[in-house]
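Handout, tutorial session.
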Amino acid sequence: MRMRILCLMLCLATILPMGSWALAAEEPAEGSYFLVDGNVCEDPGLTVYNGITYVSLVNAVLALRPDAIIGWEGEYVVVTAEGLDLRARVGDEYIQANGRCLYVLNGVIDGGGRVLVPVRTIAQALGGWVSWNQESGVVEVYSGESPIASGDSYYDSDSLYWLSRIINAESGNQPLDGKLAVGTVIMNRVDSPRFPNTIYDVIFAPNQFTPASSGSIYREPNAESVVAAKLILEGVRVGGSSLYFVNPSISPNSWAQRNRTYVTTIGAHAFFS
């Protein structure tokens, strides 16, 4: 297998507070370098934010995939190459790659006019992986032979269908984190011996989720509910060990509030374990 190796020599960096998604451009740390097949590349936009190493999406992609075509569709930077369709938008908490959604904890960042994404996320999208040598401070990014597998082949279609619909029915008007928290409750139940072990059976268990009995679960989910479902199926979890949620403004004295341990509130919902 032919591999390209990117070496990012990381030095300690101090990141100043910033706006919601804008990051002031920084000079690369002294001694930092970016190599592909032993050749020094142009400035990769190396930045550390909240302990996560970010790089310029465009520069990283072109270093690993010189054949890539990069353009813009509205607010999205779009990357196409053989076997690859990647989209990213500043402010989103994910990037899209071959129909899959990959979580970006701190969001896609504007680094002084450059779109910055975590190095691990872009490596995953390109089918690569990352290793870190703690002693030398070198991060090595290895690119495999092909980009990430497609969403059609990765996601179970029934799981995506029902998970996106229950997320939409219960939290379609909530922010992404609220949608993810609802999806997390479903998956926590799947993993719990106290509940059924499939997404469908959890949703349609008697007297559990109102949309299952009211029929609202059959409505077409909005786009962000589908994104949330994909992120959950990628392993993203929000809301810890929650097994129940309730909207206190609608049900101010619910069974969960009286009998279960409070975990957190996200959007309009309170979550309980």
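The second record follows below. Compare its token runs with those of the first.
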Amino acid sequence: MIFDSILLTLGRPMNKRNFLITAALSAALCFFGTANAAETLKIGASPVPHADILKVVQPELAKKGIDLKIIEFSDYVQPNLALSDKDLDANFFQHLPYLEAFSIDHRLNLVSAGAVHIEPMGVYSKKVKNLTDLKKGASVAIPNDPTNGGRALQVLAAAGLIKMKDGVGVNGTPLDITDNPKRIRIVEVEAATLPRALDDLDAAVINSNYALGAKLNPTKDAIAIEAKDSPYANVVAVRAGDENKPAIKELMSSLHSPEVKKFIGDKYNGAVVPAF
């Protein structure tokens, strides 16, 4: 009786057998259409080199049914907050010490899904060609966030400009400087603004992503550069528990491909170094 009512409603001749076949085919098409629909993965990233690297893996992920949406950010704060608030599925802009410190300070439950590359931090100047040429009392800027600031101080220490208290590592601050023969004035500045501030400074220690964005080549323009065995590998961050999601695993597999390694080597000529 139910089939008869449906057939009558359809208003065209169709026997019960044909109706059942048609219904089954329709259900199958709906199922496979849903199954084959692309999964959207939203990831926040700094424009250079992070977004550039992500664009390399977009076509491969699309073949696997993952629509990678890249949202660009120009700061080091909003990408983590947006990730925690579930406005993003992942982000790619920071090294692991920064992620860990930020998560503690802001009480966020974010973790690394894997390391991709290292951006050696460099010292830049428009006034001198060598750090030894800096005059007494010269102003040298570093990033004002704790981990990158401490890292920048270690770069200056490795270059022989200052000495730091033993053991402070990335947590060092200007207060931990134990020897400063040139009486360098350390100026703490937001990382993203450091390239623009070079005109008003004697030198600045700049993260490579911001240097590259300002058309500065770390391997050619820096007057001192961090060692390539730096532990500050840039990672893909996700909410804790999401690192094992299939789409995230596919993303990391694509980012660790030979194609990405070749792209980094060809594009950045040592200014960015693969970490896999």
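Points raised in discussion: The first helix runs from residue 2 to 10.
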